[in-house]
Design a protein that fits this description.
By secondary structure, this protein is mostly helical. About 70% of the residues lie in helices and about 0% in strands. Helix 19 packs antiparallel against helix 20. It is globular, with a radius of gyration of 27 Å.
Length: about 525
């Protein structure tokens, strides 16, 4: 009898201990699960980020394929009116010739040397319009049951196949239509890569892993001069063909080896995948046991109930986003900021043909600016996001306007200023992309990131036309870039600081955190006023 009482007392004591033991939230479990960043995690990050290599190539390939090539006079008779300063459109076709292969760019291939600014800028502008519409249709799919991984692979392989098909274009209109499709498919690549990278690591590693995306994008951009130089005596079609094949191969590899975001698995209620992930983490913790380790599998809460997603609910995350007033204000502010930062980030590389410098070296110099930008971004990890974006945006804007003022009077100084402007724009853009990840919860993170990228490409739609007009007057290109990026930073006044915060999963969690932070700030202000 006494033994029975003792056993019951022990069981009651054990039950009471279990009740007293605090249960972990999914956010805490995931943060702890991902706290140890090893070599396998690094290789996974590199594999995911490699998609940006091919994204960069398709984003900037028009620097060479749509370039206005140089020409020379072939009529050297004494009564010839041809000279290097002549208007090519007023010369007979027999009196001049292109310096390169007759089909080296679409300008020489389809005789567009005298075409309007609209026609010359149409292909790249169509690309950005495709990016804009693609973000609208594809963004919410990654937040739905389709997932981050599947959306990334689908976008990459579709972009690469369309890039291969573009070689069958017979005129500039068909070419522009296919550029639109390339932009449409690639629109979700950058978003999926960034979200997938940052959701697969803890807050401690989020900023550093995000830099992997920028590095692979830089490598893709830097590879273009090599590709173009090798094909300098060939048709523009060769550049598209040989740059699309690696993208298709990558998509196949990624399908088998890239893993899904654990945060997305939780939101979808995928219990089997979640348990498999945590089981692996728990076994690693057992092998490296210490006093702080916790058996996560024993503390698992019930995953979110997965709801069937119909075609009418795929974009429900957008409605959820704008249901809250604070989210609406925040969304508008970051979209305006994205227009200014993105216009410089994409516009400056596309405008290298206006520098009056060797186009191969100009792209190499421009792309090389992304390397110190990545380094600067790494050291900005522990600095506040808002001041970092502001400082580098102002630097970029000032240099852009100086480029417009100099025109072609001091060519070397103009090239240096253009490189510094791009460096500032790159660094501001890098920090900005991490910043928007931290501003919104998991349930709408992919959607919000895509909406911001839509704002970015909306500004970029006008870049090709500005650059084309800038061949005659740099005020229309560099001048506009500088003014827009500086004015867009006014919206930082309406955005909170996010350095060091833990990512939230739902809008309710985000709202509660915002209220708690606001209360803490008000309390701190009251305490300081009392002390004064």
């Amino acid at each position: 009898m006494e033994g029975s009482v003792q056993i019951n007392a022990t069981e009651s004591h054990s039950s009471a201990d279990q009740q007293k033991k605090p249960s972990l939230s999914w956010d805490e479990i995931i943060e702890k699960s991902l706290s140890n960043f090893g070599w396998l995690d690094f290789l996974q990050a590199v594999l995911v980020a490699t998609a940006m290599f091919f994204d960069a190539q398709q984003s900037f390939i028009s620097i060479y394929t749509d370039n206005y090539p140089k020409w020379h006079c072939t009529d050297t008779t004494s009564n010839s009116t041809c000279s290097s300063s002549s208007d090519i459109c007023k010369l007979p076709r027999s009196s001049w010739s292109w310096d390169t292969h007759p089909s080296n760019t679409i300008i020489s291939h389809w005789n567009l040397e005298c075409a309007s600014t609209f026609i010359i800028g149409l292909p790249q502008s169509s690309f950005f319009i495709g990016c804009l519409l693609g973000s609208s249709f594809l963004a919410a799919l990654a937040d739905s049951s389709f997932g981050r991984k599947n959306m990334l692979i689908f976008s990459c392989v579709s972009m690469s196949i369309t890039s291969m098909l573009i070689i069958f274009s017979t005129n500039v209109l068909i070419y522009s239509a296919l550029k639109f499709l390339i932009g449409f498919w690639r629109s979700s690549i950058g978003t999926c890569v960034l979200v997938l990278l940052t959701e697969k690591v803890s807050a401690e590693w989020r900023f550093r892993v995000g830099i992997v995306e920028y590095f692979t994008f830089t490598m893709g951009y830097m590879s273009l001069p090599g590709f173009a130089y090798i094909n300098r005596n060939s048709s523009w079609k060769s550049l598209y063909f040989w740059s699309s094949i690696p993208g298709i191969i990558y998509s196949i590899i990624a399908y088998f080896f890239v893993t899904e975001s654990p945060r997305w698995l939780v939101m979808q209620g995928r219990e089997r995948e979640i348990f498999k992930m945590l089981k692996r983490v728990s076994s690693e913790e057992t092998a490296n046991a210490n006093d702080d380790n916790v058996n996560l599998a024993s503390s698992l809460p019930k995953p979110h109930t997965k709801e069937k997603v119909s075609i009418f609910r795929l974009y429900s995350s957008i409605g959820e986003l704008f249901h809250k007033r604070w989210a609406l204000i925040r969304m508008i502010a970051v979209m305006i900021l994205g227009i200014g930062v993105g216009m410089v980030y994409f516009g400056m590389p596309l405008a290298v043909g206006n520098l009056g410098f060797n186009i191969y070296l100009a792209v190499v110099f421009s792309a090389s600016m992304e390397i110190p930008s990545c380094v600067a971004t790494y050291f900005l990890e522990n600095y506040k996001r808002r001041p970092s974006i502001l400082v580098f945006s102002i630097l970029s804007g000032i240099c852009c306007m100086l480029c417009a003022v100099l025109e072609h009077r001091v060519p070397a100084a103009k090239v240096v200023l253009a490189m510094v402007a791009f460096f500032g724009g790159c660094t501001a853009y890098n920090v900005f992309l991490i910043y928007i990840i931290e501003l919104f919860p998991t349930c709408v993170r992919n959607t919000t990131t895509s909406l911001v990228r839509q704002a970015i490409v909306f500004g970029c739609i006008f870049c090709p036309f500005l650059i084309s007009a800038g061949r005659k007057n740099n005020i229309f290109s560099y001048g506009v870039f500088g003014v827009v990026i500086m004015l867009s930073n006014i919206t930082l006044l309406y955005l909170p600081e996010t350095i060091g915060i833990v990512l939230c999963d739902t809008m309710e969690q985000q709202e509660k955190k915002e209220i708690a932070m606001c209360d803490a700030k008000n309390q701190h202000e009251k305490t300081r006023n009392v002390n004064v």
